[in-house]
Amino acid sequence: MAVLSSENRSGVLILWIDNPPVNALSQAVRSALLNAISKECDEGNNTAIIIACRGRTFIAGADIREFGKPPAEPYLPDVIAAIESASKPVIAAIHGHALGGGLEVALGCHYRIAAAGSQLGLPETNLGIVPGAGGTQRLPRLIGAVDAAEMICGGKPVSAEKALELGLVDKLTDDDVVSTAISYSLNVTKETLGYRRLSERKVSVDDILFSNFDKIEKKIQKQAKGATAPLEAFSLIRKTIDMPFTEGKNLERETFLKLAGTTEAKALRHIFFAERGVGRAPSNSNPRKLNKIGVVGAGTMGVGIAMTFADAGYPVSLTDISEEALGRGKFRLRSLYESQVKRGRISERDRESRTQLIQFSVGYDVLADADLIIEAAFEATDVKCSVFKKLDGVAKRGAVLATNTSYLDINVIAEATSRPQDVLGLHYFSPANVMKLVEVVRGQATSPDTLSTALTAAKVTGKIAVIAGVCHGFIGNRMLRAYVRESGLMMLEGALPSEVDRALTDFGMSMGPFSVADLAGLDIGYKARQEMQAGSFEPMATAVHDRLVEKGHLGQKSGAGFYRYNDKTRANSPHPIVEDLIAMVRKEAGVKTRLISSEEIVSRTMLALINEGCWILEEKISERMSDIDVVYVHGYGFPRWRGGPMCYGESIGWAKVLKQIQKHVNGPYGRWWNPSQYIKKLANDH
Ligand code: 3HC
User: Fold this and answer.
1) Exactly one of 40, 84, 124, 232 is catalytic; which is it?
2) Whose CA is nearest to atom 32 of ligand 1?
3) Confidence of residue 686 (pLDDT cuts 50, 70, 90)
């Protein structure tokens, strides 16, 4: 199928790009576009050229699938140069998204018309690169260096409305964008083309003289959280700000090509495609209709889950066992929506309509017409089984019954009903209305239609759903156990909690394991361990955690855990008794302490994650390595620019990873380091 077609309308040539799904600039598109522009300029008699796209969007960028392969001619900068130097006006008619190379094409055009609701941006830094086809040079010349730096280094697209304000587009329309572009073209003349060629302009002198670039750089550094591409982009803009266009463009291309091959860029491409590969419904399945949602439990999770569905426009019945519990839930709901209004995230009207969608009631009868019921009751198997028994009595036939357990055996819970085929796990992460990740846990008996309905529910509420099998903790929390174990053991062997946390935040984790434990509440893990079988976890790793709980240090909620917390600011500082307690536990265990380096902290925790991840793959709890990476990036604050723990393992090299794991097998806690056949095979094959 042709990726480009042309149409003549009112003496204007419309070049229609048609490369589904997102009109990416593949080699075929670049080549067709270059030929069509050259042909019209050489032989055509139209007055103007419009570049428009078929389908749901304007050009969403270079074809990411071509990255990592040898570049193929014609190169995008040359195509854009041909557009810009065209002898007749070229107008970009933008709808949907104009991203990356797509926006660079539009910047090469002489005029830009955007449909209301479209989005424009240069998200390359999200892929570990800088714009490679003139974006860092043309955008500052059009909208100024400061706004351009924000768009390029932040990687976030702006709305068409904002783009108009910035001067990025010339006109915004609610009508058909191509018809508007045709009318617009009738009023533009060839005479102004020189001025409209951004490569012939200079960056505003005010920008160069008066912008506080050091301050901007600091802000970018903070937002980048360890990723290098945003800073590379900034330094490129700064360096080239008063260079002639061609010199700046060459430096941009050089930086783009250098970054495209880095581990960071590979990792970011990996996670981009991993996110799009998760949560695919089984081929033989049909999702059931979702009109009404039921939620059992008006605690933190229940309210968050109810909000998730109300935010997407679904009516929700939220039940609990008493008016008192519901009262607390209503209060929580009101405060959460209130704070969203205060922060400008939603309007007063949204708050009203969303609140009204959630009906609070005592008892299960209101759940009789729900299509999906999610239980978010207390985390204990007997409690959950008794809830499911009741749900079995009231839910309509075909309703999907989901449990929001973080650890428990879904097969046991399903067996409490007469319809295990309709039961599965929907493991939301806290706060459920904010966190994007949900683990969709299929039980032994879960039917493909049930699974498919749950995946649809996740999709319509904007979640990223990763399918997992049943085991203690599924994908994320099972791996976390290994990570927490090694953190705890290193504390015992000589590292302070703050040293472990710092090494891991320096690595890029959004929080260290001891800060996370304090945030989650140390009593949660304590109770969970009490339900676990002896031998299934390493008690020495959490001996200090247990002592802290026994001393009333429950974490942030009690003002102290591994750290002490300021009431107002929540800032943490070391707690004097914690070090004493650690010393006491070390002494009791007869541990001779040693210096533990940051490298060891990172290496041991990462290897523990990777090893457990491979067991999860071996046991088919997860189908793909990339699914595990999505869980860690979206649920556990793993640095996106490292691609997830499995991608990180791959970047080290599997043979090396296995060798390092085997070293730990011979260590004092070697029984936890048994390598799976899966990792052995990886090491053998790579
Ligand atoms: N290249 C190749 N494939 C792409 C792509 C791209 N630039 N953008 C999206 N796709 C693919 C996706 O992988 C997915 O494929 P699948 O159906 O096989 O899984 C399909 O298109 C649909 O994508 P989404 O599921 O993401 O669709 P949405 O409608 O949710 O989102 C979008 C659309 C906002 C355009 C989103 O896809 C997106 O953000 N794409 C990436 C944009 C981007 O990063 N562009 C910059 C590329 S780098 C560049 O241009 C370098 C230049 O400076 C030289």
Assistant:
1) 124
2) 60
3) confident
Is 486 among the residues known to form the active site? Answer: no
Which residues have CB under 8 Å from 428's CB, separation 6+?
301, 304, 305, 308, 376, 404, 435, 438
What are the residues facing 360 on neighbouring strands? Answer: 318
Could you tell me the distance, in angstroms and rounded to a whole number, from the CA of residue 60 to the centre of ligand 1? 6
Whether 24 and 59 have beta carbons less than 8 Å apart is answered as yes
The one-letter code for the residue type at 122 is: L
CB atoms within 10 A of CB 165: 14
pTM (2 d.p.)? 0.94
pLDDT band at 70 (very low <50, low <70, confident <90, very high): confident
Mutate to test the pocket of ligand 1, among 33, 57, 64 (most ligand atoms within 8 A of CB): 64
Write out pLDDT tens, residues 247-305.
Answer: 999 999 999 999 999 999 999 999 999 999 999 999 989 999 999 999 999 999 999 99
Q: Give tens-digit pLDDT for 27-60.
A: 999 999 999 999 999 999 999 999 999 999 999 9
Structural domains in the chain, sorted by start: 4-261 (3.90.226.10), 293-468 (3.40.50.720), 476-620+653-685 (1.10.1040.50)
* Residue 179 confidence (pLDDT): 97
Where would I find the beta strands (DSSP E) of 66-203? Answer: 90-94, 97-99, 111-115, 119-121, 158-159, 171-173
For residue 275 and ligand 1, the question of a CB distance below 6 A is answered with no
Taking the CA of residue 21 as reference, the ligand 1 atom at the shortest distance is 21
- The pLDDT tens digits of the residues spanning 82-135 come to 999 999 999 999 999 999 999 999 999 999 999 999 999 999 999 999 999 999
How many CB atoms are closer than 10 A to CB 547?
A: 18
Ligand 1 pocket residue status of 280, Cβ below 6 Å: no
C-beta 97 within 6 A of ligand 1 = yes
From the CA of 114, how far away is ligand 1's center (Å)?
A: 19
pLDDT at 532: 83
E strand segments, 273-377:
293-296, 316-320, 358-362, 372-375
Q: Measured in angstroms, how far is the CA atom of residue 450 from the centroid of ligand 1? A: 29
104 classed as catalytic: yes
Compute the distance from residue 121 Cα to the ligand 1 centre, in Å.
13
Question: What does the alpha-carbon distance between residue 72 and residue 454 come to, in Å, rounded to a whole number?
Answer: 42
Token pair of 576, please? 């004097």
The pLDDT, as a whole number, for residue 280 is 92
Q: Quick one: which atom of ligand 1 is closest to the CA of 62?
A: 50
Contact 79, 98 (CB under 8 A): no
Q: What share of the chain is helix, strand, coil (3-state, %, to 5)?
A: 55, 15, 35
What spacing in Å lies between the alpha carbon of 159 and ligand 1's midpoint? 17
Q: What is the pLDDT of residues 529-539, one digit of tens each?
A: 887 888 889 99
